[in-house]
Write a structure and sequence with these properties.
Elements: H1 5-19, E1 23-37, E2 40-55, E3 58-75, E4 84-102, E5 106-113, E6 117-125, E7 132-151, E8 160-180, E9 183-196, E10 203-208, E11 211-223, E12 226-248, E13 254-278, E14 282-297, H2 317-326, E15 327-350, E16 352-354, E17 357-384, E18 388-413, E19 419-437, H3 473-484, E20 490-499
Parallel strand pairs: 8-10
Antiparallel strand pairs: 1-2, 1-20, 2-3, 3-4, 4-5, 4-7, 5-6, 6-7, 7-8, 8-9, 9-11, 10-12, 11-12, 12-13, 13-14, 14-15, 15-17, 16-17, 17-18, 18-19, 19-20
Length: 500
């Protein structure tokens, strides 16, 4: 199914280009260069081709694109035992085809992706949209491969991990709303779940068995040249991620060993408020976002449900038998992580005429602050033939980051809007970053107070130490920003389109 849909997408694109009379096509590329530092890399690139047409109540759309990503992280340590590298690199071609039909009171839409994944949507509405409601159903497979973990010690028990992740996602959504006098109020409810989907995969395989509930309320209003919007969303997720070592036995059957297991409860609250004012030749928009994320890692005491059990990740049968019989070591992690994010942004878009051409420049800025409090417990378990040893460490961290995201872009249209082109660049500027481990230091005993003979005390000698000259904090920050700009937190995109 993954490859059969590609000719369908290509055929729909060709049909849309040749026979459509209300058609709009768009082609573009973009890139995100989040991190490019020594020992750290995070980047993504994509190019796409889109086309759509409307004809006699029917709506067709198709897209075909190329996506690639690169992630690399190196951890250095004095001991090779604790030094490692982690990488994830891959690329893929993704396409989708959409077909929809509009009736007097009903709309239908089917969207099929090459993952494979499909989404079916049905919407009912009155003629004046005083009341409307809709349902959505989606199902498909999510797969990813290319993740690697490599230990610096080549004779390690597990020197390399080449992993695959796969599961099947299903979601169902209901929503209803009303439009009255420029006010649009809508509420929605979504339920989704995932199931393991590993097929005949062997080696290190990751998957999850999870479910989540999402509810949202949206209010939008228009009063003359003023527009405002309010969105609230809540997500409650129960996630179970696990790692398996899958090997074939002598009979050809798949033998599974669970070496990793992570249960996770998530509570996410999102508040979004936006306001915009339309002027004669421009528009000014303001927005604010506040989000809280609470993650709970519950205590799990069952056997074979350890957070990490390296013994069960050994592929060599002799080492596996030796480690299981003589020495076992496992780790269990539990605790809480509380995070908060606040963002305030403003955007200005203008409209200018260049003869018969039309130019729409725009600039935006977002200022954000995020903080997180981590309280985890790491329980280390050791067991042998004649002993069992357990000890628990408390890990407490505090982290925060603040900064700004500046964006500059524009759109150029030909006379009649038949041809248009757009470009946008964005740069992330960090203001402060803090990551601190909180350790409770034991109280030290006070030193004994001894009598002092004043005759034996020498007066302190005055020592002059020239303090080094320090530049202004703002200048130090600007030098740091200059050295990291366009390599870290930089994004660029461009596109061209035709409408006929």
């Amino acid at each position: 199914m993954r490859f059969r849909i590609v000719p369908i997408v290509q055929a729909l694109l060709a049909t849309a280009s040749c026979f459509a009379w209300n058609n709009q096509g768009l082609a573009g590329c973009g890139g995100l260069f989040a991190v490019d530092m020594d020992g750290k890399t995070l980047a993504a690139k994509q190019c796409f081709l889109k086309d759509s047409l409307d004809a006699r109540g029917w709506h067709f759309a198709a897209a075909y694109g190329y996506v690639s990503h690169e992630f690399y992280l190196r951890h250095d340590d004095e001991s090779e035992m604790h030094a490692w590298t982690m990488s994830d690199k891959g690329s893929s071609f993704i396409g989708h085809a959409l077909i929809g039909r509009e009736y007097r009171h009903l709309d239908f839409e089917v969207d099929v992706y090459t993952l494979p994944f499909f989404v079916f949507t049905s919407r009912w509405h009155t003629l004046d949209s005083l009341a409307y409601a809709g349902v959505q159903y989606g199902r498909g497979s999510l797969e990813h491969e290319g993740f690697q973990w490599t230990s610096a010690m080549k004779n390690d028990y597990v020197p390399d991990v080449d992993a695959f992740f796969g599961d099947q996602l299903t979601f169902r959504r209901l929503y209803a709303g009303s439009v009255l006098w420029g006010n649009n109020l809508r509420a929605g409810l979504t339920y989704g779940n995932t199931e393991p989907d590993m097929g005949e995969r062997q080696g290190f395989v990751f998957s999850d068995s999870s479910n989540f509930w999402e509810t949202d309320v949206t209010y939008r209003a228009e009063f003359g040249k003023n527009r405002m919007a309010f969105v609230y969303g809540y997500v409650d997720a129960d996630v179970h991620v696990f790692g398996l070592l899958r090997e074939k036995d002598k009979e050809g059957e798949i033998d599974e060993k669970r070496f990793a297991y992570l249960p996770l409860g998530l509570d996410i609250n999102l508040f979004h408020v936006a306001y915009s004012r339309i002027f004669d030749l421009s528009e000014l928009s303001l927005r604010a976002v506040y989000m809280t994320v609470e993650a709970n890692l519950p205590w799990e005491s069952r056997r074979f449900y350890e957070t990490l059990a390296p013994n069960r990740s050994l592929t060599d049968s002799k080492l596996k038998m030796l480690s299981m019989a003589v020495f076992q070591r496992s780790f269990r992690i539990y605790g809480d992580v509380d995070s908060r994010l606040a963002d305030f942004g403003l955007e200005w878009n203008a409209s200018r005429s260049l003869g018969s051409w039309h130019l729409s420049p725009g600039v935006s800025a977002d200022f954000f602050y995020a903080e997180s409090e981590v309280l985890l417990y790491l329980r280390k378990e050791k067991s042998g033939m004649f002993y069992v040893k357990q000890d628990t460490d408390e890990l407490r961290y505090e982290a925060s980051v603040s900064g700004a995201l500046f964006s500059l872009g524009g759109r150029l249209e030909s006379p009649g809007g038949m041809f248009f082109a757009s470009a946008n660049v964005a740069q992330l500027v960090p203001f402060s970053m803090k990551f601190e481990k909180i350790e409770e230091e034991p109280a030290l005993p006070s030193p004994p107070i001894l009598p002092i003979d004043p005759s034996q005390v020498e007066p302190p000698k005055e020592v002059y130490v020239e303090e080094p000259k320090r530049s202004h904090p703002f200048m130090r920050m600007m030098r740091s920003v200059k050295s990291l700009a366009f390599r870290n937190g930089f994004a660029v995109s461009a596109g061209i389109g035709v409408k006929f």
